[in-house]
Design a protein that fits this description.
Shape: globular
Strand order of the largest sheet: 1-9-5-12-4-2-3
Strand content: 25-35%
Order of helices and strands: HEHEEHHEEEEEEEEE
Number of helices: 4
Distance between the termini: 44 Å
Number of strands: 12
Length: about 250
């Protein structure tokens, strides 16, 4: 049995541009994320919204372990606007399992985009993306995920498509909660070679930031620590892309 991965190496907000430029990825702890977004605390009610996520109806591996909601936003300067609800779409070259199909999910709970903290979070991530790629109009997709172990085999798969890129400019994976879980190890690899790192996010509201053009990523399956009790891993994944949302025929 291989030893458990070490905790992630943490980056402070002031060092974030250098870390992303050098490695293509960075992890901020919850305090770092709050500092980045200018928040005294993460909103107390956000995590409870993950309790009501509907099942993902599009899993092609036949699983029943994923629940999710989806929303889209456009950031133009200091303005964040909700975009009309749309399907989530990825090309096959980025998602061999679910690519090439329009996947419609239930929209995000309205409490999230209505919260001023949501706007601050998105604007902060837009600043990170601009530090990497220059100023732009950013097209944001937000995914609220719950991976649980209630299905057959008591295994949940955060990334059933395997190690992948998302076809965007910046990916932010925020850990919302881990409950009664073992596994869920994050792995980040250089897209040009075998170099990589592995670690497990444990702290609620810690965040993994990825330069999607330079690295690929995956998260290993989860299992319950106590098989008699429910187990889940909740995340909020935010992607920022220049030029428009992905879709059939998109650039």
């Amino acid at each position: 049995m291989s030893p458990p991965p070490p905790p992630p190496s943490l980056t402070g907000p002031a060092d974030l541009p250098a870390q992303l430029a050098g490695a293509g990825w960075a992890v901020l702890d919850a305090a770092g994320l709050r500092m980045l977004a200018g928040l005294a605390a993460m909103p107390a009610g956000w995590a409870a919204l993950w309790q009501a996520l509907p099942p993902d109806p599009h899993l092609r591996d036949g699983g029943r372990y994923r629940r999710r909601r989806h929303g889209c936003f456009v950031i133009d300067g200091a303005q964040v606007q909700a975009a009309p609800h749309r399907a989530h779409w990825q090309p096959v070259e980025y998602n061999a399992l679910h690519g090439g199909i329009e996947r419609w999910f239930e929209p995000l709970p309205p409490e999230l985009p209505a919260d001023p903290a949501w706007t601050r979070l998105l604007l902060a991530l837009a600043e990170v993306a601009a530090s990497m790629h220059g100023p732009a109009r950013w097209f944001v997709e937000a995914h609220a995920f719950r991976i649980d172990t209630a299905g057959a085999g008591a295994i949940g798969r955060p990334t059933p498509e395997g190690a992948h890129r998302d076809g965007v400019d910046l990916v932010a994976v925020l850990l919302v909660d881990r409950h009664n879980v073992k596994g869920g190890e994050t792995r980040v690899f250089d897209a040009r070679g075998p170099q990589g790192v592995r670690f497990t996010l444990h702290e609620p509201w810690s965040v993994l930031l990825l330069d999607d053009a330079r690295v690929i990523h995956e998260t290993t399956p989860i299992q319950p620590l106590d098989p008699a009790q429910p187990a889940w891993r909740d995340t909020l994944v935010l992607t920022l892309r220049r030029g428009g949302f992905q879709g059939p025929g998109a650039a």
